[in-house]
Design brief:
EC number: 2.7.4.6
Catalytic activity: a 2'-deoxyribonucleoside 5'-diphosphate + ATP = a 2'-deoxyribonucleoside 5'-triphosphate + ADP
Protein name: Nucleoside diphosphate kinase
Keywords: ATP-binding, Kinase, Nucleotide-binding, Transferase
Strand order of the largest sheet: 2-3-1-4
Family: Belongs to the NDK family.
Helix content: 25-40%
Largest sheet: 4 strands, antiparallel
Length: about 150
């Protein structure tokens, strides 16, 4: 299969507290992506500073840190054809008010500061984020018996 790649998808503390994570898992599974890593975790400040390195100079960064450390995060890794691009499409626009109905943010979020979910924005960033949140032995590399029913 061409364009087979992995993406990092994290259900943020608001999504975990609101119980939205089963729907996220369902949507990615039903779409045909293979779950290769999953854990419920509490993010510490050093991890988040690395993850959001590009946002550290933004005025909202302190509140972002506080929000992301406020509760558990469901960190996942998904694999499949164009997983990064398709994952971002499934999430919807960063600002939920600009997200189409049917997307995760369009269905479950209103405020940008509580937008439920994070998804890698490029293949390069997906690789960095996966390595930041998961040790190699936490990722399962197995052959999906459903692949022939999903891909040509």
């Amino acid at each position: 299969m061409s364009n087979n790649e992995r993406t990092f998808i994290a259900v943020k503390p608001d999504g975990v507290q609101r119980g939205i994570y089963p729907e996220v898992l369902k949507r990615f599974t039903q779409r045909g992506f293979k779950l290769v890593g999953i854990k419920l975790t509490l993010a510490n400040e050093p991890l988040l500073r690395t993850h959001y390195a590009d946002l550290q100079q933004k005025p909202f960064f302190p509140s972002l840190l506080s929000y992301m450390m406020s509760g558990p995060i469901l960190a996942t890794v998904w694999e499949g054809k164009d997983a990064v691009k398709q994952g971002r499409a499934m999430l919807g626009a960063t600002n939920p008010l600009n997200s189409a109905p049917g997307t995760i943010r369009g269905d479950f979020a209103i405020d940008m500061g509580r937008n439920v979910i994070h998804g890698s924005d490029s293949v390069e960033n997906a690789k960095k984020e996966i390595a930041l949140w998961f040790r190699p032995e936490e990722l399962v590399d197995s052959k999906s018996t459903l692949a022939s029913w999903i891909y040509e």
